[in-house]
């Protein structure tokens, strides 16, 4: 079976672009302190199993920029001549460099950042350029026009937004229509533990306007896997770097809920990670951006794509467990 036969590719909203059901993100595992051979194995395992979309950002590191540099090296070494088989996304919007022009949503920041990302990755174009977060200090029109300039220059094919609140999504989509910007995707945190997007109107707004959704942290950075069922294991993200995955978040109630979810997973002959991903797939998002520290995790997670969908009874049972948190 070819790598492409192993994956489902879904049209991103109303656009012509097809996204794989799962992508690989480089927020973690691609820093300057990580093992380069492991990074290569992650990217190669992903691609060999049909993952064509790789999700980066200017600031993924540490040091900021390291993930793009490492991914660029892997492209050269292992994907020479295959650039057009890959979807490479990057972003700008969080702090990247010192001073007033290295953060936010200004034209100055975004256009400079794109040039730097292209250099680090050593490629000619980016497939999807996301504005990484809403910047209340910059008019959305300015940000959207900066994205349009990128697209018109041929250096970016499609635009995306990430973590925009509902009012900003509405304005961005309206402007995108006016200026004919191919804004095709919104990137949001979606997991059994974080369901805001369904509650705050963002999901419906994107769906009703034919915009695709790429989901991130669908395993809650690893919490929704079997590794935290009995505490914090050595070498896990929470153990090594708890900047974003705080040790305090692993409460006794959460451990109890995770164990109950694991019972459902086992009943379905799934791992807890697969159950968590099956749940996100049941919510009709085009693509889940996976994080991974080992190639075996990618293989484990991909199995969710071919797993039986959750029944209404199972979904109710899961909601019951989550409602106790
Ligand atoms: N737009 C944004 O603002 C934004 C924000 C965050 C992320 N993202 C994107 O989304 C991507 C994924 O985010 P994330 O890393 O938070 O995703 P995640 O899928 O929720 O968590 C990934 C982590 O879970 C653990 N894991 C994964 N599969 C496992 C398995 N089968 N069994 C046991 N443990 C497993 C690994 O951590 P261990 O180290 O513990 O093994 C892995 O690094 C990022 O790389 C980035 O591209 C975007």
Core attributes:
325 residues, alpha/beta, TIM Barrel, eight-stranded parallel barrel, two-stranded antiparallel sheet, 12 helices, 10 strands, binds NADP nicotinamide-adenine-dinucleotide phosphate
TL;DR?
By secondary structure, the chain is of the alpha/beta class. It has helices spanning 36-48, 66-78, 107-121, 140-152, 166-179, 196-199, 202-208, 237-240, 252-267, 272-281, 295-302, 312-323, and strands at 9-11, 18-20, 22-25, 53-55, 87-92, 126-131, 156-162, 183-189, 212-216, 287-290.
Describe this structure in words.
There is one protein chain. The protein has twelve helices and ten strands. It is globular. α3 (107-121) links the parallel β5 (87-92) and β6. The mean pLDDT is 97. Helices cover 40% and strands 15% of the residues. α1 (36-48) crosses α2 and α4 crosses α5. The chain has an eight-stranded parallel β-barrel with strand order 3-4-5-6-7-8-9-10, surrounded by seven helices. A two-stranded antiparallel ribbon has the order 1-2. The protein has a single domain, classed as TIM Barrel, CATH 3.20.20.100. It has 325 residues and is an alpha/beta fold. It has helices at residues 36-48, 66-78, 107-121, 140-152, 166-179, 196-199, 202-208, 237-240, 252-267, 272-281, 295-302, 312-323; strands at residues 9-11, 18-20, 22-25, 53-55, 87-92, 126-131, 156-162, 183-189, 212-216, 287-290. The structure holds NADP nicotinamide-adenine-dinucleotide phosphate. The site of NADP nicotinamide-adenine-dinucleotide phosphate has 29 residues, from β10 and α11.
